[in-house]
Specification:
396 residues, mainly beta, 22-stranded antiparallel beta barrel
Length: 396
């Protein structure tokens, strides 16, 4: 009986690679994962994730893409969705003299102001040498990625983007995004994206979005990256956002404050292998503010760091490490440690939390990766949260 179970287990792990590796028109990967965790009760989950791309020889510039995941819980209660579809679409590329791309099906999208998964159609057209138009439309995917398609009459999503490249060395993007439910729009955004390099050492990026239904600023981001030398890097960022509240929703009755964040980061390498990194972070919400300070030592094997938090978000002193060591050419070990002492407010007690993760990963050429990781977490809510994650990744 044990022999049969072992045979079935290895077939479960390697079956996608065995089935598809012999077909030259198919490429992709499969990942088989085991997760065992224990808090109040024990769970043992098996995940099988398969990502495939089929390019038939008899149809030019056409491919079929599938991205699936299955879940089985061997514990006392079922958790999660047993079968999830992250992607399933038909793709035509480089049509009309290499100007047109078309996709139909379930696919991930991001156009600057809208992001998510969509069951619908996607179109990208290069009208001129420096201008490209992108459009998409369809229905939202269930939050649990279930193999179900919502009805178009219940609601739909449309969006688009215009990209202009190399205009006075600037890359420009204008985005539009609209959600409709019960024949009325409840989320509608327009966005602007700018990127410009100044030589080889200075890079500037700005992104903003505007809520058309409420006539308010939704997000604004400006960052600057400066490399004065090969050993020194500076990064500065300013960020503002408001809560995502849909039009005519219950939460519109409340006066919700926006969040403003500023960050300054510096990285300095005092040798070829060793360096220092530091972060200053300010967060403002109304009249309240919070600060974070981080300092880390960079080594060939990872980072050792210290962090302190102050202000309305609480008080925390934290030490952390993330190091990786090549035991052999194919076997690598990784250790992560995280310790903190924190207070939620001035009048609350201080609490200690500790987390650790140890991982071994073995690479067999470029096709197989086998890993095993043990995770442990302890805080005031969970005295013991222990997890074991095993994974086999096959590429074909």
């Amino acid at each position: 009986m044990k022999t049969k179970l072992c045979v079935l287990f290895f077939l479960f792990i390697f079956s996608p690679a065995v089935v598809f590796s012999g077909i030259p028109q198919i490429s992709g990967s499969s990942a088989t994962s085991f997760l065992g965790f224990k808090t109040d009760e024990a769970h043992y989950n098996f995940y099988q994730h398969v990502s495939l791309a089929y390019r038939p020889e008899f149809v030019r510039n056409f491919s079929i893409h599938i991205n699936l995941m299955g879940l089985t819980d061997l514990g006392p209660a079922s958790v999660g969705t047993p079968f999830q579809v992250y992607g399933a679409y038909l793709d035509w590329r480089h049509l009309w003299k290499n100007r047109l791309n078309v996709s139909l099906g379930r696919k991930f999208y991001f156009n600057g102001v809208g992001v998510g998964y969509l069951d619908g159609g996607f179109l990208s057209v290069r009208a001129l040498k420096k201008i490209r138009f992108s459009f998409f439309g369809g229905v939202e995917v269930p939050y649990n990625r279930a193999p179900k398609v919502y009805r178009l009459q219940d609601g739909y999503v449309i969006g688009g983007k215009v990209q202009v490249k190399n205009v006075y060395k600037t890359r420009l993007g204008i985005s539009f995004y609209r959600k409709v439910r019960n024949h009325a729009a409840y989320w509608q955004l327009v966005g602007l994206d700018l990127y410009r390099p100044f030589g080889q050492t200075l890079f500037w990026h700005a992104r903003t979005s505007f809520n058309l239904l409420e006539s308010t600023l939704r997000k604004a981001l400006v960052n600057l990256r400066w490399l004065p030398s090969k050993k020194l890097l500076f990064y500065m960022e300013g960020f503002y956002r408001t809560p995502q509240v849909y039009h005519d929703s219950f939460f519109e009755r409340f006066e919700l404050e926006g969040l403003t964040q500023g960050r300054l980061n510096a990285v300095y390498y005092f040798s070829k292998k060793y360096g220092l990194t530091g972060d200053l972070l300010w967060i403002f919400t109304g009249e309240k503010q919070s600060q974070k300070f981080r300092l880390g030592v960079l080594t060939p094997y990872g980072i050792l760091g210290f962090q302190q938090d102050l202000g309305f978000a609480g008080f925390q002193i934290r030490a952390y490490a993330d190091v990786q060591y090549p035991v052999t050419g194919a076997l690598k070990a990784r250790l992560r440690l995280d310790y903190s002492n924190y207070q939620i407010s001035d009048w609350s007690e201080s609490y200690i939390q500790f987390g650790s993760a140890f991982r071994l990963a073995y690479q067999i050429k470029e096709r197989f990766l086998i890993s095993l990781e043990d995770q442990f977490y302890n805080n005031r809510l969970y005295k013991v949260d222990n997890r074991i994650l095993g994974q086999v990744i096959c590429r074909f």
